[in-house]
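Hi F.,

I've been meaning to write this up properly since the lab meeting, where we talked about keeping a consistent format for the predictions we share between groups. The idea is simple: the sequence comes first, exactly as it goes in, then the structure tokens exactly as they come out, then a line or two of notes. No screenshots and no reformatting. I'm using this chain as the first example so we have something concrete to point to.
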Amino acid sequence: KYTIENCVNHFDIDKATKTKVGYQYWFANKDFTQENTLKMSIVEPGKSTHAPHHHPEEEFFYILEGTAEFFLDGKTKIAGPNTSFYCPPNAEHGISNAGKTDLKYLVIKKDLK
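Output, unedited:
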């Protein structure tokens, strides 16, 4: 059964998972998202979660705060809040913090079944 309390998820840094470059916060578990990814990443200035890579799943980033450098197939674009980046299947991509404050962005990945 759902209630208003379990239908609202407010970000709490104490419930986030610490990473080497910041934090990750999952808004819903993978049972709810049918194994898809729905999380927020927080990356410290000058860092990235990992090197550019590729995978068969589509991926979408939405910038909440900070300045991101988006890498896609050898080209880069720098943008700030309220900007989205789309990664087509198998495209080499990456995202890093190009600013002086934490970068916060949503990650939505449609995993293959």
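Notes:
Residues 46 and 97 are 5 Å apart (CA to CA).
The chain has one domain: 5-110.

If this format works for you, I'll send the rest the same way.

G.
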